[in-house]
């Protein structure tokens, strides 16, 4: 068995968005597990559900939301550190935000995986 790596908690801060962040998980098929697909920003749960469904849940049988503030993140490397060219998972997460639920949300990406 390999050496166990030590993980440190990553502070998320306000994630550069004034609105609460919501982590989005979807299940595409009843026989598949839930999968984290990204995050959305919304003032309230209903707005977050609407955005998540529009962005990530078109063909999903289940969409789960979790307030990002309630998620503890742990990693073996520091956020923003260069670890052999791999983009940290938090940078691959897509974040959507909008200031009005009637406006189509925009999707921002901090980095793309090659």
UniProtKB/TrEMBL annotation:
Region (Disordered): 1-20, 30-52, 74-114
Pfam family, one: PaaB
Listed Gene3D superfamilies: Phenylacetic acid degradation B
InterPro entries: CHP04031_Htur1727 (IPR023976), PaaB (IPR009359), PaaB_sf (IPR038693)
Basic and acidic residues bias spans: 42-52
Protein name: RSAM-partnered protein
């Amino acid at each position: 068995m390999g050496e166990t790596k030590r993980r440190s908690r990553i502070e998320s801060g306000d994630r550069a968005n004034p609105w609460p962040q919501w982590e989005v998980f979807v299940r595409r098929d009843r026989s598949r597990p839930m999968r984290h697909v990204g995050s959305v920003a919304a003032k309230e749960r209903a707005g977050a559900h609407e955005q998540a469904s529009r962005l990530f849940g078109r063909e999903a049988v289940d969409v789960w939301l979790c307030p990002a503030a309630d998620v503890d993140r742990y990693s073996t490397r520091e956020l923003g550190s260069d670890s052999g060219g791999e983009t940290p998972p938090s940078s691959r997460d897509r974040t959507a935000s909008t200031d009005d639920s009637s406006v189509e949300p925009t999707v921002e990406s901090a980095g793309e995986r090659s």
